[in-house]
Write a structure and sequence with these properties.
With 344 residues, the protein is mainly beta. The chain has helices spanning 33-41, 85-90, 135-141, 151-154, 327-333; strands at 2-4, 13-16, 46-49, 51-53, 57-64, 67-74, 82-84, 96-101, 106-119, 122-132, 147-149, 159-162, 167-170, 178-181, 190-195, 198-204, 211-214, 225-234, 237-251, 254-264, 276-278, 287-291, 296-300, 341-343. The longest helix is centred in the first third of the chain and has 9 residues, at 33-41. It is globular, with a radius of gyration of 19 Å. The N and C termini lie close together (6 Å).
């Protein structure tokens, strides 16, 4: 059985209903793909301007087939990517039926194969992606999103995101102050996390704001300071969240200090190879980099004595971490996928 992790924006487990799935599978690259791809992309430096929402959601321009100047949301916790259903219809793409199994119901969806996707120096051809109605993102952000671009595309080039200058740079990664090794690279990147002598594996997810841990993966010996409990509703029903404080968190050998995390009740899947999701805004990363040549994730943190400031976001209605979280942001954050999807 082929396993594929689907990004968390729908909180789904995807099971395809078609008999012949050979064309629909993403076709993950061979072990030496990164080395071969780096020969053509490693020396290319391409800088793209970024629209920044909620302090962590990154939107850049790209192309799909004959459609140019489309808005791509960069989501390193996503695989496969997804496009808005209207774009798929405009391009007259053949759809493959599929079903998404939620916690208590099953809903239909579709897969399509994109003729080409261009993002900076990256060009992907014959790329299978999900089709979804992404209008909920426009309602939440006030800006249209045409596609959610995940690691099936992004892994073709190392890249850096600078949240202060609002730029995304493709090409060789500069040395940043802090870094941790990849523990897995396919289908998405995970890095090691340690707290209270416990070892976990986290998905590095630019589509999530804060640290989220799965309750089924937490050891019984883990002791947290509980800050509160809340419930939020999404397409699969009600999700229960516990806000906890972890006094000291390490990524690899680097500390990121005390962190507030959401612990989510989930259904354990022995096939899963990650234990939670590392968002960008919670640890206050202001620059991050994915170096696929050296298999490392690196980051920069603000100076210890730097006072919190209102972020220079493109959604000026919203405020950064530490202030009120808008209801539409909560709806987006807690629709993120927490479980492994299976292509049967």
């Amino acid at each position: 059985m082929n396993r594929l992790r689907v990004s968390s924006y729908l909180l789904v487990v995807l099971t395809l209903s078609a008999a012949d799935l050979s064309w629909a599978q993403p076709g993950y690259p061979p072990a030496n793909f990164g080395e071969r791809a780096s020969q053509s992309l490693a020396q290319l430096r391409v800088k793209l301007p970024v629209r920044l929402y909620w302090g962590y959601l990154v939107i850049v321009e790209g192309s799909i087939g004959s459609r140019n100047k489309l808005s791509f949301l960069i989501d390193t916790g996503a695989c496969p990517s997804a496009i808005d259903r209207k774009i798929a219809h405009d391009l007259k793409l053949a759809e493959q039926p599929a079903r998404m199994n939620l916690q208590n119901k099953s809903v239909p969806t579709h897969l399509v194969v994109l003729p080409s996707v261009i993002l900076g120096p990256i060009r992907a051809e014959s790329l299978p992606v999900l089709t979804e109605d992404l209008s909920f993102l426009q309602k939440a952000l006030g800006y249209k999103v045409d596609a959610i671009v995940g690691m099936d595309v992004l892994r073709k080039s190392s890249f850096t995101i600078n949240y202060r200058t609002k730029e995304m740079l493709f090409g060789p990664v500069e040395t940043l102050t802090y870094s941790a090794p990849f523990t897995t690279e396919l289908p998405i990147v995970t890095i090691p996390m340690e707290f209270q002598d416990q070892q976990l594996r986290l998905v590095v997810d630019t589509g999530t704001s804060d640290l989220t841990l799965f309750r089924s993966r937490m050891p019984d010996s883990a002791i947290f300071e509980i800050l509160g409990t809340e419930k939020t509703a999404n397409v699969s029903g009600t999700v229960r969240l516990r806000k906890v404080r972890i006094p000291e968190v390490y990524l690899g050998k680097e500390t990121i200090g005390a962190q507030i995390a959401s612990v989510v009740d989930d259904h354990k899947d022995d096939g899963d190879d990650f234990d939670g999701v590392l968002g960008i805004r919670g640890p206050q990363f202001w620059k991050i980099a994915f170096d696929f040549e050296h298999r490392r994730f690196s980051w920069e943190l603000p100076a210890v004595d730097s006072p919190p400031t209102v972020g220079d976001y493109d959604d000026v209605r919203l405020l950064p971490k530490g202030l009120a979280i808008a209801p539409e942001e909560a709806a987006w954050v807690y629709q993120k996928v927490e479980s492994l999807s299976e292509l049967e």
